[in-house]
């Protein structure tokens, strides 16, 4: 019977937390790219594209992330590929993140006054030019605080990947608990590590929001 | 892809699925009622409550909002017994959902309360209402009406998040799906079906909350 010191527990959890960070970054960046594509479909001119994107967003926002993980895990397997947990985790988290980011960003684009679209159209700009030179530069400013705020959800979402067997912070917590029989300490520490990852993001989102609000009032 | 889809197991598994749906619905109903009540209590503390309690509530809200629900659940179910607090899987799941929704709804309701003009507190006081009466009639109800859509979305999010309570063997819909797929080896089809059930539940819950909001606020206003 090996004895585990507090330091052993903490060190193992921190090592596993690296994978939580990596997975969060991959999901957030990948989700941002897919989300931007969805956004262009969602607010573009074509009707079928709008419907498709809307359906996608509703589907992913209306079902549990855990189910999406299971479906990615077993769904990719149907193609005869031996699916490692990290692949299913990345695919599901990217698709899930994309749905939420697209919806957040749509709100930001729609907050830009309609006159801006009309003014840029009257200058002879095409859709992509309007987006590139007029709408996005303004919408991006509005989009920063909620996007940073959503990154907290992504970090917390990665905890679910432990269920399909990806070894990140939560899974490490379960493994260490099974070895040490100290669930109170271990899960307490796991929670604190998540808190240390998420809280700075939450706080900076709040600060950014306040800063932006001031900028708005000075117009 | 040469995979043959098979949904023949669905008929035999229907009772298990229905039981899972029942537990999930039960969890979210209890969680929503007590979670929002806890949220209102916390919002009251943050707006008008005793000074010493404010940092306690603020810490609770920040801790819950910045940690995953799964870990909160594990902490309650596996961690608390070390302190002598033991409970069944369902109670632990319920408690975790209440604690989780309580923190989120506190923030949402607080935002609604902050939007109440200062003068309304004073107007209430000048009508000889007690601080509690002012809070309830003048501040809370309009605040709830203002933030009802946000609160509804949060309740739906908690319902979808409740899928993870299967991990402590609370027998909800996901637990039923796991059970069924371990018998029929049709994992993909089983999870597709349960995902669609979750989608239907989410749409239904959203509609019900919209209806409830109309009953609580708009009908009153139109009378």
UniProtKB/TrEMBL annotation, chain A:
GO molecular function, one term: transmembrane transporter activity
Domain of life: Bacteria
InterPro entries, alphabetized: AA_ABC_transptr_permease_3TM, ArtM/GltK/GlnP/TcyL/YhdX-like, MetI-like, MetI-like_sf
UniProt-listed Pfam families: BPD_transp_1
Gene Ontology biological process: amino acid transport
Keyword presence, Nuclease: no
Transmembrane domains' residue ranges: 20-44, 56-79, 85-105, 184-202
Stored SUPFAM superfamilies: MetI-like
Protein topology in the membrane: Multi-pass membrane protein
Domain ABC transmembrane type-1: 17-205
GO cellular component, one term: ATP-binding cassette (ABC) transporter complex
Localization: Cell inner membrane; Cell membrane
Keywords annotated in UniProt: Cell membrane, Membrane, Transmembrane, Transmembrane helix, Transport
Principal place of residence: membrane
Family classification: Belongs to the binding-protein-dependent transport system permease family. HisMQ subfamily.
UniProt protein name: Amino acid ABC transporter permease
Species name: Mesorhizobium mediterraneum
TrEMBL record, chain B:
Domain ABC transmembrane type-1: 21-209
Main location: membrane
Transmembrane segments: 27-47, 67-85, 151-170, 190-217
Topology relative to the membrane: Multi-pass membrane protein
GO cellular component: ATP-binding cassette (ABC) transporter complex
Gene3D superfamilies per the UniProt record, alphabetical: MetI-like
Localization per Swiss-Prot or TrEMBL: Cell inner membrane; Cell membrane
One Pfam family linked to the record: BPD_transp_1
Transmembrane helix is among the record's keywords: yes
Keywords: Cell membrane, Membrane, Transmembrane, Transmembrane helix, Transport
PROSITE patterns according to UniProt: ABC_TM1
GO molecular function terms listed in the Swiss-Prot or TrEMBL record: transmembrane transporter activity
KW Transmembrane helix (keyword) present: yes
UniProt GO BP: amino acid transport
PANTHER family: ABC TRANSPORTER PERMEASE PROTEIN (PTHR30614:SF35), MEMBRANE COMPONENT OF AMINO ACID ABC TRANSPORTER (PTHR30614)
Family as reported in the entry's similarity comment: Belongs to the binding-protein-dependent transport system permease family. HisMQ subfamily.
Protein name per Swiss-Prot or TrEMBL: Polar amino acid ABC transporter permease
